[in-house]
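Sequence design from tokenized structure. All designs in this work follow the same two-part layout: the structure record, then the generated sequence. An example of the structure record is given first.
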């Protein structure tokens, strides 16, 4: 492997157009017996953190056991409503073409680092045909850790990349893009 590409899922590769929030509310009510009146901030958070903070907004206690039950309920909700995901959601512009173009190149491995639980991540990716170009065995998911930096370390470890090297500490964002629609530009940015 000469290049490892770590992708986030929501708002990077896919947009569920509100279906994700509906599934979350279903799982929350199933596990707590209460409707979800409000949800904690989700951007940049992992499922365990979102659940903990949403439970707090409802005056309910958090525990790892409760998260386990919630993860099962959320995964089951995604399985039940995969047709709604396909109908209302979509892969973001350029994502399918870019993932395919990267997969066609030698030495490039792609996976995900996501706050989603693994089942939800797999279903979202499969719903839009994005899973075939990713090595999900080395990805990191919401149930792996509460904080995103730890998810990156886990994915790097699973890929056999030393997470604490000087190269990784010195790494920083050099480019910001609005979307993935310019496949050639993205290939140049990602592969040099």
């Amino acid at each position: 492997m000469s290049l490892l590409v770590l992708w986030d899922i929501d708002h990077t590769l896919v947009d569920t157009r509100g279906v994700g929030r509906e599934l979350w509310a279903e799982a929350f009510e199933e596990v707590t017996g209460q409707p979800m009146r409000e949800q904690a901030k989700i951007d940049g958070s992992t499922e365990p953190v979102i659940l903990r903070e949403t439970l707090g907004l409802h005056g309910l206690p958090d525990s790892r056991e409760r998260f386990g039950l919630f993860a099962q309920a959320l995964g089951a909700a995604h399985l039940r409503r995969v047709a709604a995901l396909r109908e209302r959601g979509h892969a973001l512009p350029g994502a399918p073409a870019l993932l395919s173009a990267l997969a066609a190149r030698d030495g490039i491995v792609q996976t995900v680092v996501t706050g989603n639980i693994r089942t939800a991540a797999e279903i979202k990716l499969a719903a839009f045909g994005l899973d075939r170009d990713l090595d999900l065995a080395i990805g990191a998911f919401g149930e792996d850790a509460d904080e995103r930096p730890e998810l990156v370390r886990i994915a790097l470890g699973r890929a056999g990349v030393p997470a604490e090297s000087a190269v990784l500490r010195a790494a920083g964002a050099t480019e910001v893009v609005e979307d993935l629609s310019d496949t050639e530009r993205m290939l140049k940015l990602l592969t040099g």
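The first strand starts at residue 3 and ends at 7. We note this feature because it recurs in several other targets discussed in the main text.
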